[in-house]
Design goal:
Pfam families: 2_5_RNA_ligase2 (PF13563)
Keywords: Hydrolase, Ligase
Motif (HXTX 1): 36-39
Radius of gyration: 17 Å
Family: Belongs to the 2H phosphoesterase superfamily. ThpR family.
Number of strands: 9
Strand content: 35-45%
Strand order of the largest sheet: 2-6-5-4-7
Order of helices and strands: EHEEHEEHEHEEE
CATH superfamily: Cyclic phosphodiesterase
Number of domains: 1
Active site: 36, 124
Shape: globular
């Protein structure tokens, strides 16, 4: 199974507005029900590994108090010369960093060969994968013009399974963990 640890995010209406305004000939938009903030991406894992992760999360997550994150701004990651990822930014949060660091360290303890991909953690919410570089730039600019700015309370962390289906990727909640 392909798994990751994340936080569910409510979809800002501005993203739907951009899809309607600018079209989406060269883009693949993330389903609003799939919006999330990844804490740690694990990838392929066995059932026994999932159990170890679950046990670690049951110890870690309740030690953290609920907190608020703020979505602000937009950005992109260029994956190749002609494609990239459009994302919404998350303002710097001490509580989010502390939770991420502790979860990340636990995962690296369980998977010592897993590359530490989060030395420079950039919290973000992926909203689209866009094949055309100019379209990516236009979408990013328009998203920034709309000035997405919203706050969301975080009181749960989720262990997700990423499933490829004929209708696209689906994220199945395997388990939820409540902050104290």
């Amino acid at each position: 199974m392909r798994i990751f640890i994340g936080i569910k995010i409510d979809a800002p209406p501005e993203v739907s507005q951009i899809k309607c305004e600018l079209g989406h000939a060269h883009s693949k938009w993330v389903k609003e029900s799939n919006y999330h903030l990844t804490l740690v991406f694990i990838g392929q894992a066995k059932t026994a590994d999932k159990v170890k992760i679950s046990q670690a999360l049951h110890k870690i997550v309740p030690q953290h108090a609920p907190f608020v994150i703020s979505l602000k701004g937009a950005g992109s990651f260029q994956k190749r010369r002609s494609s990239g990822v459009l994302w919404l930014g998350v303002e710097d949060s001490t509580a989010l960093k502390a939770l991420h660091n502790e979860v990340n360290n636990a995962v690296l303890h369980i998977f010592p060969n897993l590359k530490n991909q989060y030395k420079d953690y950039t919290p973000h919410i992926t909203v689209a994968r866009i094949k055309d570089r100019e379209e990516l730039s236009a979408f990013k600019q328009r998203l920034n013009e709309l000035n997405v700015s919203r706050r969301q309370r975080v009181d749960e962390v989720f262990l997700y399974e990423s499933l490829s289906t004929p209708n696209g990727v689906e994220y199945k909640v395997l388990e939820r963990f409540n902050l104290k």
